[in-house]
């Protein structure tokens, strides 16, 4: 039951004719909704919608081979018919890197930028929380099967301190945002080779663009 509540489902007082429990989830915000934090908003109404006000936006670069696993909906139909990893079939996921970034906060919007091939923002996600560790067992304990990495790969990563970004998948962009477009609209600072915050002056355009 706690699992369902974590994804915005509410237990109704009534049961159906078979005496089964009934759960309800709102998919659109209501005018008289209570004041929610950006993360609580995402839990209640997501995926597919995000709280875009009073949060920061961040670009996170991701290589194609990992993007295919984290965001399988971006792949061509013929590539979908294969055995799935657990992380491919879950909303809650984790991103591991060696970035020194300390700006990403709970509820912030993270925009995954697929580098090397399409060079575009392909997915919009919401950060749950971040932490740093150099202990592979601690990382696995906290993220479980939310990552594309094996334990041995995580052990190798933790030769240096690792930044772990735990996030909720919200949606895949129907119209990916190319680097050229981001650069032209002043949203980026040079190439996106590491986590970077979206420039404030570009936010009005970006909020409109990701809604297209």
UniProtKB/TrEMBL annotation:
It comes from the Bacteria. This is EVE domain-containing protein.
């Amino acid at each position: 039951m706690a699992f369902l509540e974590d994804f915005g489902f509410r237990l109704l007082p009534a049961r159906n004719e078979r005496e089964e429990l009934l759960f309800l989830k709102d998919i659109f915000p209501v005018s008289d909704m209570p004041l929610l934090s950006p993360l609580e908003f995402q839990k209640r109404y997501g995926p597919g919608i995000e709280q875009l006000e009073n949060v920061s936006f961040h670009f996170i670069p991701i290589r194609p081979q990992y993007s295919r696993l984290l965001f399988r909906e971006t792949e061509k139909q013929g590539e979908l018919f294969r055995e799935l990893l657990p992380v491919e079939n879950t909303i809650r996921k984790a991103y591991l890197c060696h970035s020194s970034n300390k700006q990403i906060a709970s509820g912030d919007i993270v925009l995954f930028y697929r580098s090397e091939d399409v060079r575009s923002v392909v997915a919009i996600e919401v950060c749950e929380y971040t932490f740093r560790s150099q202990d592979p067992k601690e990382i696995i304990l906290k993220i479980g099967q939310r990552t594309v990495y094996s334990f041995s790969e995580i052990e190798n990563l933790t030769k240096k301190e690792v930044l772990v970004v735990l996030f909720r998948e919200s949606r895949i962009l129907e119209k990916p945002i190319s680097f050229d477009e981001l650069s032209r609209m002043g949203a980026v600072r040079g190439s996106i080779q590491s986590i970077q915050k979206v420039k404030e002056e570009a936010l009005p355009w970006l909020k409109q663009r990701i809604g297209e």
